[in-house]
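Run log, item B.
One chain of 220 residues. Sequence copied directly from the ordering sheet:
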Amino acid sequence: MASAGHSAPRDPAAPATLAEAARQRRDVVTGEVRPEEELIRFVVGPEGQVVPDLARKLPGRGVWVGADRASLQAAAKKGAFARSAKTRAQAPADLADQVEALLARRVLDGLGLARRSGQLISGFEKVSAALGSGQAAWLIEAADGAADGRRKIFAAARRAPRPVEWLGVFTSAELGLALGLENVIHTAFLAGRSADRWAADVRRLGGFRPLLPESWREEP
């Protein structure tokens, strides 16, 4: 028997609190228990259709799968949706594409919400200032912006007093439509809880498409 005042060492992978444990789910493909933000929830509709539930609010037994294209394809191939939901289930052939499109929409909607709440700024000078002051958590660049301006703003991001993450998956037109602005090239999401919540969807989107164009990595 263990002596009084001593307890078994805690597993570092185990949740620290009940609230944290409640936010963890079992991936039906790997069997691993993972945080919800690393997974995609699905429900099975009355006709057996597999429905993505990115907001995790739809009624029904949830089926949780890793937030990446390979995991979704494996779940469909292995019949994991039907097995976990304990009912007939048919995953559409384009399920991964559906999830990617939904995630992209959530990320863009999150940017629009952040702008309306004052957590997002746009324009080269304003973004450069936010980077320099350490206020920016994310730098969002239009995928079709000019290389010269991108090099300058990336240089400013590298000099920032706090680490800044980069995103470059949307065109200027897509960003402009989400923000209600024209000619959107340089945008920064200010650090805070809103940025942290938004980043969870960005990282899930990263399981379906690169967050930066490959050509950018070759730029000086």
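Observations after the first pass:
- Residues 1-21 have pLDDT under 50 and may be disordered.
- The two ends are 63 Å apart (CA to CA).
Flagged for discussion on Thursday.
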